[in-house]
């Protein structure tokens, strides 16, 4: 028997109805990580609490100064830039809420077998870098440009295809200003941590994480639509394996709440005591600004309007919201939902697709309110 | 029906033989995280790649300057110290490899249901702080001291017991110099990140993570042995539920290797091409210095001695090792094992206990070596 790449990967599959998380999903869950939900309290997510999803290995880059970014393809003046060269361009800092396209996947039935996120694959950071449009201007894009392809240094195999991680944006998006795409070299004022793309990554405000190519090495302008694995096979919204599917692009609206009270270690059930309780959380949308957050203490049967803090000029960052709930002894399910200026909101029943992408099913937080005099 | 604390927690249990990882275990795996194994390349683990395990919520501490650490109990001069006060004491920096006591748990059959680590719950940092013995000297420990109890600010419920996280050390260990216990305020030269105990944590070199109490608020000297939940119920090595069990203390030897080649996204199987391949990794023991690392490419049937780098004075940190392997087309299982100066080594068959603690079963890395001419 031969030993070939196409034997290495198992086909994509859905879990059986009662199938627990498998060893493969667990291996992804232990190396990638979500935002512990209590960290929704921070405007800017502290390093190490921001979600991380890496397809292959985190490249080992002991010396940033030797890194080179090329800008080529359909351009008049191909560029070769070091991180120091990039710092000579005008710098822009943008606060961006980044969410994994697979967030919510593990709540689906049937569950697509992949990185098993519940609701926590999110984080917000101040990203500093050069607007991509300035680099493309410097290189001089030729007429006829269709896509801009971004190549990272992370290398692996997926469904039998050996690849460097690659994604593309349409030329209009790559050179646009709403959002303004960045080639970022700093996160929260410090050099990028290795797991966030050190030394360079793309930041595409409002888009799911798969577009923000990390460990960025090449920017290539093409005159045809990019059809690489991560563009045309992965990250498509499909109902059936044979569908061409719609591409996954911008982030759909979502609200999350900071679980109140304190947790049981194992079940993560929240414990509170009777009386009024402040609730708070964050809400975001990459489609249009969030205009409304509602909270429910009865699993979505009735809703109460939350108070949404001003956006403070950060169009691409989550917004803080607060509300109050009067807890009474018994079991409750708290939930919240965001609505954006386009009228998009979050479903109470799962919006299923085979890849488990762009799932914004509402968060459900089970809370146990103790009796007035309960001390365990 | 009443709503009491003892209804909140489910009893400890073992998974059924074919039971996949449950929603409760997954909720822990998505918020806590391990070291991505390629990060074993770094002497000091970059922030955000070091493993994290939090029992309850990460406390929210917006202003460090208001934090107070008390030193009390059986002492002549109780102390109340701010982080700034601690910086006035002599400072010590110690490089420490920290491992979770539950590392390896999810590899056990039957699997204890808890945080489901495979092998990655480890990391190495330079911790800076005040030797605990200097604080206890300043407070003046009275005769008859037995234990020193450490209380963190993280609050939750576990098996029906509401608690702040608390652990104790015997007075001799707390005031000893081998290892020297620290009250740390910096990690790798920066203030502690929230998830690592900001603003103060205990560091007990050589001991499993449960001893390194984070968000440290109280140090209390007692004249009786501490019998709190995390000391006498959790973190015991038991074969049967009714056993008193031995306490979990120091880290048993372990070697891990950086998985060679590149991964398949989903299975994490490693792919290499035929020929000589450098192998490298780390090895550590909290019992006695590591003196030997061996590598096997046939799942432990035959072993080859690895080259162990000098310890460079960091007694409590992992040591780097390297070896070479000549890959031939086919499927292989790489493994490594560490032996320490006391002759302790790693088992090839699981050392089972009900809590899944101190499990140093060898790592097994499946590798697929392609045919010479295979290109997928």
From TrEMBL, chains A, B:
Q: Which cofactor does it need?
A: Mo-molybdopterin
Q: Which SUPFAM superfamilies match?
A: E set domains, Oxidoreductase molybdopterin-binding domain
A Pfam entry, by short name:
Mo-co_dimer
| Signal peptide start and end residues | none
Q: Which residues form the Oxidoreductase molybdopterin-binding domain?
A: 56-229
* Matching InterPro entries: Ig_E-set, MoCF_OxRdtse_dimer, Mopterin_OxRdtase_euk, OxRdtase_Mopterin-bd_dom, OxRdtase_Mopterin-bd_sf
Domain annotation Moybdenum cofactor oxidoreductase dimerisation: ranges: 275-367
Query: What's a GO biological-process term for it?
Result: sulfur compound metabolic process
Q: Which GO terms describe its molecular function?
A: heme binding; molybdenum ion binding; molybdopterin cofactor binding; sulfite oxidase activity
The alphabetized UniProt keywords are: Metal-binding, Molybdenum, Oxidoreductase
Q: PANTHER family this protein is in?
A: SULFITE OXIDASE, MITOCHONDRIAL (PTHR19372:SF7), SULFITE REDUCTASE (PTHR19372)
| Protein name, per record | Sulfite oxidase
User: What organism does the record attribute this protein to?
Assistant: Streptomyces aquilus
């Amino acid at each position: 028997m031969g030993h070939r790449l196409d034997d290495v990967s198992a086909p994509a599959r859905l879990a059986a109805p009662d199938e627990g998380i498998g060893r493969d999903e667990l291996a992804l869950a232990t190396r990638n990580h979500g935002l512990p939900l209590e960290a929704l309290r921070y405007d800017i997510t502290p390093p190490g609490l921001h979600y991380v999803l890496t397809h292959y290995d985190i490249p080992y880059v002991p010396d940033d100064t030797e890194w080179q970014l090329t800008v080529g393809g359909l351009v008049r003046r191909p560029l070769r830039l070091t991180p120091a060269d990039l710092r000579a361009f005008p710098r822009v800092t943008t606060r961006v809420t980044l969410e994994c396209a697979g967030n919510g996947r593990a709540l689906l039935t049937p569950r697509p077998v992949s990185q098993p996120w519940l609701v926590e694959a999110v984080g917000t950071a101040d990203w500093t870098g050069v607007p991509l449009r300035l680099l493309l201007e410097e290189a001089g894009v030729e007429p006829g440009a269709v896509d801009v392809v971004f190549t990272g240094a992370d290398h692996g195999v997926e469904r039998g295809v050996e690849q460097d991680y690659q994604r593309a944006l349409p030329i209009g998006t790559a050179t646009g200003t709403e959002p303004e795409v960045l080639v970022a070299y700093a996160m929260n004022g410090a050099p990028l941590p290795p797991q966030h793309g050190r030394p360079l990554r793309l930041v595409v405000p409002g888009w799911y994480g798969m577009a923000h190519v990390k460990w960025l090495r090449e920017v290539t302008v093409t005159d045809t639509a990019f059809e690489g694995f991560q563009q045309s096979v992965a990250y498509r919204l499909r109902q059936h394996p044979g569908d061409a599917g719609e591409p996954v692009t911008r982030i759909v609206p979502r609200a999350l709440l900071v679980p109140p009270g304190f947790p049981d270690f194992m079940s993560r059930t929240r414990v509170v005591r009777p009386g009024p309780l402040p609730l708070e959380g964050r809400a975001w949308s990459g489609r249009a600004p969030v205009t409304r957050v509602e909270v429910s203490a009865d699993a979505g049967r009735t809703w109460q309007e939350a108070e949404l803090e001003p956006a403070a000029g950060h169009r691409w960052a989550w917004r803080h919201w607060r509300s109050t709930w009067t807890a009474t002894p018994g079991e409750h399910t708290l939930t919240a939902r965001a609505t954006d200026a386009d009228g998009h909101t979050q479903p109470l029943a799962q919006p299923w697709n085979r890849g488990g992408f762009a799932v914004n099913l509402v968060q459900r937080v089970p809370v146990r309110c103790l009796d007035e005099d309960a001390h365990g």
